[in-house]
């Protein structure tokens, strides 16, 4: 799937699905009502919309994801990098770290990621 564009409310909804799947649609309605204040019809509309976009499967009132959280996160981060930083990872990191301090542990994790990505 090339277009994994997902809106904020849909992402929050998908987070519930990813955490609880497979989940009965009735239970999903209850979770969305208590978590987001959604009506039953809103939840079913989101299920339908995400199913039509190939992100969910709703069979026999059981909802499961067809895309992984990491796929959506990767797509979204690539879109931000392209749109706001002209595909420059150093520019993104500079902006992100401005006025922030990393712990030694965080710096070590990032160094390890960079080393693995450059092999």
Q: What do these coordinates show?
A:
- The chain is mostly helical.
- The chain has a three-stranded antiparallel β-sheet with strand order 1-3-2.
- The chain has helices at residues 8-20, 25-36, 40-52, 69-85, 89-97, 104-117, and strands at 23-24, 56-59, 62-65.
- The model has no long low-confidence stretch (mean pLDDT 94).
- The chain is 66% helix and 8% strand.
- The chain contains six helices and three strands.
Could you list some keywords that capture this structure?
66% helix, 3-stranded antiparallel beta sheet, single chain, elongated, mainly alpha, 119 residues, 6 helices, 3 strands, 8% strand
Strand content: 5-15%
What ranges have pLDDT less than 50 throughout 5 or more consecutive residues?
none
Helix content: 55-70%
Total helices: the number is 6
Q: How can the largest sheet be summarized?
A: 3 strands, antiparallel
In spatial order, strands of the major sheet run 1-3-2
